[in-house]
Amino acid sequence: MWIEQNNKLYRSFEFNNFKDAFDFMTKVATVAEKMNHHPTWTNTYNKVEIWLSTHDAGDVITQLDEDMADAIDKL
Question: Which keywords appear in this protein's UniProt record, sorted alphabetically (predicted)?
Answer without folding.
Answer: Lyase
